[in-house]
Amino acid sequence: MNTQLKKEFDYYLAHQDELVQQFEGRYAVIKDGKILGVYDSEMRALGETRKAHALGTFLIQRVSKGKRDYSQTFHSGVVFR
For the whole model, what pTM was predicted? Predict the structure, then answer.
């Protein structure tokens, strides 16, 4: 993860439960420890936020329960012997 956005992601994790109660399924834009806006689509969040803020200075995070929307699992067909 971009270390510039680590504090924004940490903010999301610290407030995830309350954000889920208010905005589940929507996209939150986080910058400097606050929510700049919440949108119905990731593209709308990006389009609106970049009008006033430089790319790379804010985080767009889908608000959901658990880790589903911020983690990935990779599977491989490799077998070690």
Answer: 0.82
35-39 mean pLDDT: 98
Number of domains in the chain: 1
pLDDT of residue 81: 66
Average pLDDT, the chain: 90
Bridge partners (DSSP) of residue 28 are: 38, 61
Which structural domain, as residue segments, surrounds residue 42?
A: 3-62
State the DSSP string of the chain: --GGGHHHHHHHHHHHHHHHHHHTTSEEEEETTEEEEEESSHHHHHHHHTTTS-TTSSEEEE--SSSTTT-----------
- Residue 72, domain member (yes or no): no
